[in-house]
Amino acid sequence: MRRVSAVLLRSFLQGLILLSPIAVTAYLAFRIFSSIDSILPYDLLPYIPRGVGFLIVIFFVTMVGYLGTRFFIGRWLFDSFAFLLEHTPGIKHLYAPIRDVVGSFVGEKKKFNKPVWVRVGLEPEIWRIGFMTQKDMTAYGLQERVAVYLPHAYAISGWVIVTDGKNVKPVKDMTAAQAMKFAVSGGITTVADEN
Fold it and tell me: What is the tally of structural domains in the chain?
């Protein structure tokens, strides 16, 4: 009886391990879909089928992206609106950091594109993966120092360290995206998995 219950418990735990990523992904996808779809006031528009709000939002965002990058007028409008947000008291303290964080990860001006290994311990020797954000810290009174962003595993947060340039070496055989995936996954993902 004890052996049967051990097999059942182990099978249950294995089932949880197999189903958890699928269930969490499906739940998050459903929540995102529902949140976006709920923007449309279906109670005021009872004849519109569910899901149309999601399609409208996706279409709107796509058109904004297309017009904002392809046409001078669209780019000018977005730049003007961004300028207004950057100079509005109170709002600028929200807008600027959010813009910088989003721009660091995606877009034409992404900042996390130089993956590096950083020695953070000597005895024992410990290396962490990160992204060079400042190659020269002289303007801050720190000669021969560099700034490196170290992402946390399984999170969207991280921290910045300033270290001697000799403690940093470039990551080889990994793109910036692969390095970020390696860091955020806690080192589980390998470059071989990508190929």
Answer: 1
| Residue 110 lies inside a defined structural domain of this protein | no
CA angle 34, 69, 88 (to 5 degrees): 75
Residue 152 lies in a domain: yes
Domain membership of residue 97 (yes or no) is no
Could you give the 3-state DSSP secondary structure of residue 133? strand
In Å, how far are 8, 24, 35 from 18, measured between CA atoms? 15, 11, 27
Task: Kindly give the parts of the chain with pLDDT less than 50.
Answer: none
> Model-level pTM?
0.54
Whole domain around residue 146: which residue ranges? 115-194
Residue 85: both structure tokens together:
């947000």
- What angle is formed at CA 67 by the lines to CA 65 and CA 69, rounded to 5 degrees? 65
Condensed to tens digits (0 to 9), the pLDDT of residues 78-133 reads 888 888 888 888 888 888 777 776 666 665 556 677 889 999 877 788 898 898 88
Whether 24 is in a domain gets the answer: no
E strand spans, 18-170? 115-121, 126-134, 145-151, 158-164, 168-170
What pLDDT was estimated at residue 109?
59
At 195 the pLDDT is 52
Q: Which amino acid is at 26?
A: A
Q: Evaluate whether 119 touches 167 at the Cβ level (below 8 Å).
A: yes
Between strands 126-134 and 145-151, the pairing is antiparallel
